[in-house]
Amino acid sequence: MTDLRLLLFVCLFASCTGESPDVRTPGQPGAKPEPEWKGTLLYPAGQTHSPVDSRVAAAWRETRSWGPDLADDVFMKVGASSTVSLNTLYCFGSDQVFLGGAESLRPTLEYFLNGDAAGTNPFERVTQAARSGRTANWALSGEPSPVQMEFETLMPGLAIIHYGTNDMQMGSTYASAMPGFYESMSELLDWMEFRGVLPIVTGISHRGDREEADRWVATYNALLRGMAQARDLPFIDLHAAMDPLVGHGLASDGLHLNLGPYPACDLREDALAYGYNQRNLIVLEALARVRSVLQEGENGLDGDALRLVGEGTLEEPAVIPALPFSDARDTYESGQYEWDSQCGGEPVHGGPEWVYQLELSQSTAIRALVMDRGATDVDLMLLNAEGQCLKRADTRIEMTLSRGVYTLVVDTFVDSSGFERSGPFQLMVVACDDGDVSCAG
């Protein structure tokens, strides 16, 4: 059992007992770090499919090796209303499939059509792990949970997961809903990976129903993209694929995708102007990319990929190359205790930190958030080029910054007893949408 699998095993049973999914005691000697290549490859926004290099390919094979008895040609569908919709994937099992310029995807289509999903194929399978109006928290709720029932029925090697839209509504604000979503998605991905299922994480599309909700879509997608990036999982940027379409590919309700005068699995040029057709294309593309790595032995699907530069120290901060940005690290692995100044009138934190550098070419309203889990407690500090503290927050900083260089410090809290609350975190930094007054600070 690899170190990562052992960690997921512990996480799984800790979450069942209501404890933190990350049960490693912060600062405890002997904790095993992740493999050194984890998180070095950045998943850029605006790119429909996350990049795959040799290390990501190796990670996919590693995850699948934990479930050798699972079916490579079967995937489970996990999500809410858009997953339940008969316009999503089901049509690939019908006679209304027109690949057009995507003819190269036919071998992948036939490969999964031949998969046995409890007597049907995985495209046409009516999943127990998706229900309209549900959230990521629902997926693992109950004994057995919807995901467990579907897993035990299919024994699939892959899972297509799509949550976020409903999850945004699970707080008094979109900001307050995010930690719960992060926790639920983390537990869901832990659950999948431990069993050897390779999850394909899907981002969310525009929100045409509520303007304020739409302004938070980029932040939620930064979270989802960052979670996939940290675990080296495939990520589908649904927002990027739908963005160029008329009305962003949305139906009249502004929430679900639209369908034109074509079957949903018509992938010819004119049909791809509509949301469901575009989604079916990119999911089939994602399945083809996974298949090429797992079944055909490809070790890299993309050219030069963007990587994080810098050591995460005050002397050599990790450089944020563009916004939006996501990165997941672990302050326990930092070993740096140089940030010992007060910020915003708060007491000295004293624990290890990770340091990032952000350079802005023009005045920009930014939203920076940090998520942690369980016993981990990290805070976020924003400094100017002279090292002066501009703002401190437990989880979120929203502020308009002028052109220049800034430093973001993710610092570990040390409680009154001297207990160091170091551990894993995820940082997201996004440029606020125009008109988002609440984000301007």
Highlighted features:
441 residues; alpha/beta; Rossmann fold; Jelly Rolls; 2 domains; 5-stranded mixed β-sheet; 4-stranded parallel β-sheet; 10 helices; 13 strands; globular; disordered N terminus
Describe this structure in words.
The protein has 441 residues and is α/β, with parallel strands linked by helices. It folds into two domains: 262 residues, SGNH hydrolase (Rossmann fold, 3-Layer(aba) Sandwich); 122 residues, Jelly Rolls (Sandwich). The chain contains ten helices and 13 strands. The strands form three sheets. The protein has a five-stranded mixed beta sheet, with no helix packed on it. It has a four-stranded parallel beta sheet with strand order 1-2-3-4, sandwiched between helices. Strands 6-13-8-11 form a four-stranded antiparallel beta sheet, with helices on one face. α7 packs parallel to α8. The N terminus is likely disordered.
